[in-house]
Amino acid sequence: MIIQKNIALKSFTTIRIGGNSNKIYLPESLEDISRLKKILLLPKTLVIGKGSNIAFSDNGYKSDIISLSKYHNRHISIIDNKYISVSASISCARLAKFCHKKSIAGFEFLHGIPGTIGGALAMNAGAFKQSIWNSVDSVNVVNSIGDITNISYKKVKTSYRSVDKNNILLFLDALLVINKRKVFDVNLLKEYSKHRSITQPVRQWSSGCIFKNPSKNTPASSLIDSLDIQKRKIGGIYISKKHCNYFINDGSGSCKDLIQLIKYVSKLIKNKYNISLTREICIYSNSNE
Ligand SMILES: Cc1cc2nc3c(=O)[nH]c(=O)nc-3n(C[C@H](O)[C@H](O)[C@H](O)COP(=O)(O)OP(=O)(O)OC[C@H]3O[C@@H](n4cnc5c(N)ncnc54)[C@H](O)[C@@H]3O)c2cc1C
Predict the structure, then answer these.
(1) Nearest to 200 by CA among 127, 106, 116
(2) By the number of CB atoms within 10 A of the CB, which of 31, 117, 130, 228 ranks highest?
(3) Pair 137, 153: CB distance under 8 Å
(4) If you measure from the C-alpha of residue 72 to the centroid of ligand 1, how many angstroms do you get, rounded to a whole number?
(5) pLDDT over threshold 80, residue 198
(6) Measuring CA to CA, which residue among 232, 258, 259, 257 is closest to residue 244?
């Protein structure tokens, strides 16, 4: 197993924010993951995917981190023409492309989500009115007592961009259901990608949407849009003109800038609409901060 220390955590996030790490464990096999049981059981140990929904404190993160980026057991396979078995370390884009090649409908929405299946399971990631847990049959996980076990979707409470991980420390893989009632459309993946590149700043340093939508009919972006603060900048972090729920790092941004901009926007929304926005981005800091 590879173990790294004192690494700039910004390189583990798509918004490029964070100080230095303590130990980062990069397990390569299931045996390595079993060896990490004690570390996984520590309350502040963090499992990360591609870092597309996280930022770290400017002071770094002093607890241990586990990244599946070097995990060898990456697989996607079709089982009985009914299910897809997929490792947590596989990217969402790769799963979407795999399904597209096999003419399997229902997973196109994952194409533009720049995370792993593990991260998508942890966040209940979704787009275009679909989310990953709508397709989950079961997951293999390391549970809260450190055992590797299979859990049915029925035992996991999920809601919009939220998953109750009380009994889950780490997602290993998922069994996804192929919905035969969905008709495969060869153009759908392209259409979704085009829509994203027109409406979202996909090539810049961000973590996607900063806030969750307060309700189905109230996108956070339309609330922020109404404030007329497009391009508002604090330090090196600014509100994207293309999609105002995306905050962009110009390269010099810090976690402090990010938190200040989040607070600034939240306060304006609260004052104008009496709505308390909830963060979608996960910001990790140390207990003494
Ligand atoms: C340009 C852009 C567009 C985006 N578009 C969307 C979108 O359309 N829809 C959407 O839902 N999100 C979107 N996101 C956010 C992000 O891509 C998703 O939340 C994604 O699922 C996160 O996956 P990740 O592997 O990057 O996880 P990370 O960001 O590394 O981690 C996110 C959370 O998941 C946990 N986690 C990660 N892997 C595991 C694991 N194996 N076991 C247990 N916990 C784990 C982490 O502890 C953390 O709490 C976007 C982000 C960007 C930058």
Answers:
(1) 127
(2) 117
(3) yes
(4) 20
(5) yes
(6) 232
What is the band of 287 on the pLDDT scale with cuts at 50, 70, 90? confident
CB distance 114 to 52 below 8 Å: yes
Query: What does residue 196 show for φ and ψ, rounded to 5 degrees?
Result: -60, -45
Tell me how far the alpha carbon of residue 15 lies from the centroid of ligand 1, in angstroms: 12
CB of residue 118 inside a 6 A radius of ligand 1? yes
Report, as an integer, the average pLDDT of 51-76: 95
**Can you give the residue ranges of every domain in the chain?**
2-67, 76-177, 204-284
DSSP, collapsed to helix, strand or coil, labels residue 191 as: helix
Q: How many whole angstroms from its chain centre is CA 30?
A: 22
C-alpha of residue 281 to centroid of ligand 1, in Å: 9
User: Is domain 2-67 in CATH 3.40.50.150, yes or no?
Assistant: no
pTM of the model: 0.97
Mutation to probe ligand 1, out of 25, 53, 168 (largest number of atoms < 8 A from CB): 53
What does the DSSP 8-state code read for residue 238? Answer: E
CB of 126 within 8 A of CB of 158?
no
For domain 76-177, give the fold: 3.30.465
